[in-house]
Amino acid sequence: MFESLESKINQAIKNLQGRNRITEINIATTVKEIRKALVEADVNYKLAKDVTEKIKDEALGRKVLIDVNPGQLFVKIVEDELTSLMGGEKADINLKGDPAIILMSGLQGSGKTTFSGKLANYLKKQNRNVLLVACDIYRPAAIDQLKVLGEQIGVDVYSEPENKNAVQIAQNAIQYAKANNKKVVIVDTAGRLAIDEEMMQEIENVKKAINPSETLFVVDAMTGQDAVNTAKTFHDRLNFDGVVLTKLDGDTRGGAAISIKSIVDKPIKFTGMGEKMDAIDEFYPDRMARRILGMGDITTLVKKMQEVYDEEEGRRLAAQLRKNQFNFNDFLSQLSQVKKMGNLKDVISLIPGVNKFIKDMDIDNDAFKPIEAMIFSMTPKERENPDIIDGSRRKRIANGSGRTVQEVNNLLKQFQDMRKVIKKMNQADQSGNKRGFNMFRR
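^ thats the sequence. predicted structure below, dont judge the formating
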């Protein structure tokens, strides 16, 4: 996501490196290149021109502070303008009402039904009693898809397969929700391959009938500027409350994320990546701006870690670490925690400065499989005590995992290096240095 845009903006900002002040001359080329990068990312030309003019005016109006070079100052200015362009502040979803009603809208293929499941799962984790409603009466597999998702996440799905009146289905679902103590109702509506009057009139009628507390427009981020144009058409008819950008893990140029707020004047509230039901993120304009500039997103990384963190397992691991008894069973446990955080490349890209090194690398969760294969080829005794793994055992592990002896040797060496670091941290902790394993204690 945003890899090309990030690369081009950073390249443009390099023009200011080594300068001792910002001038109209040395900033002209930089601003021109940023504008070009935004347009190539499918941001509307007028919008790209307006935002880069703001960046230029702000930069020329600033004095370079002591210890802050022009490049650093300019990055901050660009970050602030991108943040403002994407909405400035995080916008929360409105869950008022008993039940709160969320109406989903969007074209077919935008990921609307999948996102309905993700949102239901997200709200369920907040201990809310959620009901999914299948109001797509045209796409044959839509009801079945929603039922599969509901079963997967443990959320009830209301449907009337023989009823072809979407308004009536939605109204009946609300009554069902009230009778069954459902606190949030998510209504998945029909989409089309293109906007047509019949679809727009139907969803208008549904909205009028159920009066939702929140209407969300779901859009495929990979459609670029077309996504923005579609959003405007839907907004003119529905006056929706927020936008959901899906498929941000695809080959997207990022123009929709950057420009959609300024076109419809409604905030992006969520983003979705991948098919997994936990692949949903709240949208923070400032964090997205930092990611576009290759500055990472430590806050989101920490949040993802907290979501998968097992406190009991954490306490057990901390005890192992303090005793210098970290073994391959512990290592497997930590791999499992990392894999729960989502796509590995996306997770790594949240670390500041890392994205430029991994952008051309093919990294996914399958990268763990060779490591796991070698560990699973060890006996329980070997996993518990890696020091007993001699030459003959290494050969057996290699044969059992389909890897080479050299790969087994590399794994064992890296593991021993890891244990040495852990031991040093443990020694520091025991000597009173609070930067040791106190971080593991909750």
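Residues 433-442 have pLDDT under 50 and may be disordered.
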